């Protein structure tokens, strides 16, 4: 293949050129090819299997010890398959042990369904606006946080109002307990005395002599004096 003569080619950037067709498997013969970028085109089909196992292209087959084999050797390292996308148009092999690197993720817009190497995703279209999957995810996260924050603030307001009502109720109960222990008598109580009645008899000086016992004492006093006089007068005469 003529591509095999490109023995000194290290980097090939064909991104965003609206290239159509299929990816030729002859790229595997470019021994020193390291960076291979075909994102943002209209390439169809899949990545040739022989190219997927070629070591070195986009760090394919190169990674730290212990890297998952499916991540180390993958066609996604060359270009994301149809129905998937990444910001780079291809997956990135992990550079550290136990890391996942950057993987191609599902996308359901029309372009991703037909073309490989997609670096963007417009899952939802509203009018003339298109929203990327990442943007939708961020909006969902921020909306969820806003809802939780609003719910927490409303909860605090409700608790504060309940606390205020409780304090006011306690103060009213405490105030009622400290009122006059001898409240005024009702007007219809037999113990109550009208001011007018009191003024009407205010000049009547009542004494113990006005009672039945006092009257009897006076009567006995008068009788005793008459008898005593009857005894005394003859003696004097």
Shape: elongated
> What fraction of the residues are assigned to beta strands by DSSP?
5-15%
Helix/strand-derived class? alpha/beta
SSE order, one letter for each helix or strand: EEEEHHEEHEEHHH
The helical percent reads 25-40%
* Total helical segments: 6
Side-by-side strand order of the widest sheet: 1-3
Describe the structure.
This protein is of the alpha/beta class and 237 residues long. The protein has a domain at 2-120. The chain has helices at residues 49-52, 69-72, 110-114, 133-177, 195-200, 212-236, and strands at residues 11-13, 20-21, 35-37, 42-43, 84-85, 105-106, 122-126, 129-132. The strands form 4 sheets. It has a two-stranded parallel ribbon with strand order 1-3. Strand 7 (122-126) and strand 8 form a beta hairpin. The longest helix has 45 residues, at 133-177. The N and C termini lie far apart (185 Å). Mean pLDDT is 76; it is low at 198-202.
Could you give a short description of this structure?
This protein has 237 residues and is α/β, with parallel strands linked by helices. It has 6 helices and 8 strands.
Q: Helices, strands, pairings?
A:
Blueprint lengths: L10 E3 L6 E2 L13 E3 L4 E2 L5 H4 L16 H4 L11 E2 L19 E2 L3 H5 L7 E5 L2 E4 H45 L17 H6 L11 H25 L1
Parallel strand pairs: 1-3, 2-4
Antiparallel strand pairs: 5-6, 7-8
Question: Any key phrases for this structure?
Answer:
38% helix; two-stranded parallel ribbon; two-stranded parallel sheet; alpha/beta
